[in-house]
Design brief:
23% strand; 2 domains; binds magnesium ion; 332 residues; D-Maltodextrin-Binding Protein, domain 2; 8-stranded mixed β-sheet; globular; Fructose-1,6-Bisphosphatase, Chain A, domain 1; binds 2,5-anhydro-1,6-di-O-phosphono-D-mannitol
Length: 332
């Protein structure tokens, strides 16, 4: 195995870079890794096991939950509850935040917000989906039940964030505020191995990702930018290529590696956009900024948005610095 750096080793070796290094964050990340491996196993055999399709339940946003959404949610909650390092969680699939009441969990210093399986519409059609997670230090007193203030912290207060992409291979990409590193799951040994050290997003690219079906509902700024993407100009590599998977993790992962811009803006029928601040946008914004990109609502940095409710939505523009700056210039 010489030359291969496993995720567990990497997390332990880099824990000293972290300002509050006591091993708790390391253990918390390892709990997330274990849950993601279990979810990966089910995702991989989704067509064989009775785990495809919808349940009869809806989540708080009125979306029908898929069986795999529910399975993934249960795995992450169980791993974090049993691990004892988190005092509570917030999930896309759970209406209210969930503060753990065991004495051990109440002594936990962290809360985790996550979307257990993002891109649910792609589950049944064998297209990439992902898990997104965000970790904060609690602001309430250790030894008590976590409170709403713990879950409604600004993205700038994140101590770690990451995603797992269940794609042609399974990867885990995370940051603790010291750059971004990516690990690919080697299924033969069941370990995530360092494959993308010090991941940085190219300053520019030629991919734009947006649900163009919504353009009639989008602002003039967004429409003008998309027209700009389609113009012919060899000196700026235009026209750009349109790529839209409909799984935020997959669209952003591709753009992170190749360069590009991802846009889910406010629309006339969804004035706050679609994507959720606390467990979709903030963690992706943290990774994006750590990789050298920009994450904006169009008006301010996503991580500066003051959260007022758990399932709050936020307009989202993320990607290569120069491409995002160009779109932002159309907002002015
Ligand atoms: P989900 O959390 O219900 O899966 O929704 C989030 C997903 C994102 O992954 C993706 O970027 C977006 O919804 C796609 O939405 P649309 O189908 O409106 O383009
Ligand atoms: Mg989601």
């Amino acid at each position: 195995m010489s030359g291969v750096k496993m995720l567990s080793e990497f997390i332990t070796e880099t824990q000293d870079d972290f300002p509050f290094a006591t091993g708790e964050l390391t253990r918390l990340l390892n709990d997330i890794v274990i849950a993601s491996k279990i979810v990966n196993r089910e995702v991989n055999k989704a067509g064989l096991a009775d785990i495809l399709g919808a349940t009869t339940q809806e989540n708080i946003q009125g979306e029908t939950q898929q069986k795999l959404d529910v399975f993934a949610d249960e795995q992450f909650i169980a791993a974090l509850k049993n691990g004892g390092e988190a005092c509570g969680i917030a999930s896309e699939e759970v209406d209210e935040y969930l503060s753990f009441d065991s004495p051990r969990s109440q002594n936990g210093k962290y809360i985790v917000a996550f979307d257990p399986l993002d891109g649910s519409s792609n589950i049944d059609v064998n297209v990439s989906i992902g898990t997104i997670f965000s970790i904060y230090r609690r602001v309430s007193e250790v030894g008590t039940l976590a409170t709403e203030a713990d879950y409604l912290q600004k993205g700038d207060h994140q101590v770690a964030a990451g995603y797992v992409i269940y794609g042609s291979s399974t990867m885990l990409v995370y940051t603790t505020g010291n750059g971004v590193n990516g690990f690919t799951l080697d299924p033969t040994i069941g370990e995530f191995c360092l494959s993308h050290p010090n991941l940085t997003i190219p300053k520019t690219g030629k991919i734009y990702s947006i649900n163009e079906g919504n353009l009639a509902y989008c602002s003039a700024a967004v429409n003008n930018y998309i027209n700009y993407c389609k113009e012919i100009d060899a000196s700026t590599n235009r026209p750009y290529s349109a790529r839209y998977i409909g799984s935020m993790v997959a669209d952003l992962h591709r753009n992170m590696i190749k360069g590009g811009i991802f846009i889910y803006p406010e629309t006339t029928n969804a004035p706050k956009g679609k994507l959720r601040l606390q467990y979709e946008c903030n963690p992706m914004a943290f990774l994006m900024e750590q990789a050298g990109g920009i994450a904006s609502t169009g008006r301010k940095r996503i991580m500066e948005v003051e959260p007022t409710e758990l399932h709050q939505r936020v307009p989202t523009i993320m990607g290569s610095k120069e491409m995002v700056e160009k779109l932002l210039s159309f907002y002015k």
